[in-house]
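Sharing a chain and its predicted structure for anyone who wants a worked example. Both blocks are below, sequence first, tokens second.
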Amino acid sequence: MDAALIKKLTITINTVILFLVLGLMLFFHMCKATFLVYFSIPTLLVYIVGYVLIHFNRLDIYLRMVYVWLNLYMTICTLCLGYNFGFHLYCLSMIPIIYYSNYMAYKMNARRVKTWIFSLLILSCYLFCTVYVSYNGPIYEESNKYAGIFWITNSVIVFGFLIFYTKTLISNIIKSEENLTRMGYIDQLTGLYNRHYMTDRLEELWESKEKDSLAMIDIDDFKGINDVYGHNAGDYVLKKIASIMNETCPECIISRWGGEEFLILRKEKTYSDEIFETLRKAVEATEFSFDDQPIDVTVTIGVSVEDGSYIDKWIQNADDKLYAGKKSGKNKVVY
């Protein structure tokens, strides 16, 4: 989640809370809870100031201000109306939100709040107001006829925040895990899988005893391309060949094995062996041009069918056939 999205989300939440405070202010007036009506005025000012802090990207100050004031608001409302109204439930959502905000501050490389201090503060206020009301009762007894409605309303709001922030946090964690996995398994230049991913995949297939074909592909005279046209041209050739392989064999598992070598794992039931000859011809027929300079590019392919041997032998067999193709003239497929 980037800074702009976090800012937009914070403005939305600030607006929602602002309207909630306005609605509660009207309710307090109906209940003749005069003190809470007056207390709602500085509460509104807190969220109005919040817009200014968000605008100037001072989310750290905004979060501290809101946490402290929400805690105070929860405590006073519980003391005045009693815990039957459910204002004390807001502590259930405040603590997860604090930790979520700390996570987002970490992601943005921003200043983080001391979560344990705010958590202890919320717990202390929660225990104080609920214990006080249990022994002494609420200040405004006459408003109890609205308790059921507000218990339900506050419960829905609190659980809404819990569901939203939990879902958002878990989604971000999953996305981060997927990005880390992708970074660990994808070759950054070509966008193909890397050697690490292919090794893991081959081990899985070997354990499942599936019969598949493994092809080792090498770009012919690639060193000469780098020497004559430059390494940028070499990168261009690598990326274009990666694209051709993806188009020719879209359901194959393709990896950059190292340098100008690639490894293709072909499902036995998906394609015939002709797919590798089709690939060779596709590379040969493609016009490669870098900085308006045409480049002749061909590939040699060695293919090995899994026969129950160990993975290393399977790969070595494909490599041996690739070497035989190189020795016998290049630009060919050897089975």
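Comments welcome. DSSP finds eleven helices and seven strands in the chain.
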